[in-house]
Design brief:
By secondary structure, the protein is α+β, with helices and mostly antiparallel strands. It has 2 domains: 51-89; 91-200. It contains 5 helices and 4 strands, in the order αααββαββα. It has a 4-stranded antiparallel beta sheet, with helices on one face. Strand 1 and strand 2 form a beta hairpin.
């Protein structure tokens, strides 16, 4: 009878446990890499969006600065300064002018409209009982030191119905009135001198 004696040690079988661990480690590493790539891509997108916003804000600031520089270099400020200087150097008050023009009116005459322009001219409409009163008013204005020139551009007739008391009875009567349109050119230097003289006295 033959006996098989094997003196070599038996080979131990490798366990599959280490292979599973290795696969798990490699899988986890791959998942981590994918997650990091995804997060990095998301951060990159946010950075690009922020960079675009910053560029947009920079462009808006540059545009605003350009507009401000253009405005500062424009003639608007200079023209405004000239207007202020003109207003300070040539103040002609309207109330004294109206008082003077009213003082030239005849007893029953009165001003219907008054338009004072920047260039020192006045468009005035007044009402009179007769054409002689309109001529008298024109002559008084022509003789005034406050006025350099005056023209009567229009004289029209208006019919007005008025009530007349005759004792106990009251009757209506049609009366003609004359409306004169005047263009008046003021002597601003003389007016200013006289106003300064009145304020100093």
């Amino acid at each position: 009878m033959l006996v098989d004696i094997n003196l070599l040690p038996k080979k131990e079988r490798r366990s599959n446990k280490s292979i599973y661990i290795l696969f798990i480690f490699v899988g986890a590493t791959i998942l981590c890499l994918i997650a990091m790539l995804f997060i990095g891509h998301s951060i990159q997108k946010k950075n690009n969006a922020l960079a675009k916003q910053v560029n947009t804000i920079k462009e808006q600031v540059e545009t605003s600065q350009t507009m401000l520089t253009t405005y500062e270099n424009s003639n608007a400020a200079a023209e405004l300064e000239k207007a202020v200087i003109w207003a300070e150097n040539y103040p002609v008050k309207t109330v004294p002018i109206i008082r003077v023009l009213t003082s030239y009116l005849p007893e029953r005459g009165y001003i219907l409209s008054f338009l004072y322009n920047e260039d020192g001219t006045i468009q005035l409409e007044a009402q009179f009982d007769t054409t002689r009163e309109a001529a008298y008013y024109l002559k008084r204005m022509m003789d005034s030191a406050w006025i350099t020139d005056v023209t009567l551009s229009k004289l029209s007739v208006t019919t007005i119905t008025t009530s007349v008391d005759e004792g106990a009875l009251s009757t209506e009567q049609d009366v003609q009135r004359y409306n004169g349109s005047f263009q008046i050119f003021l002597n601003k230097e003389t007016i200013k001198e006289e106003e300064q003289g009145d304020s100093n006295s």
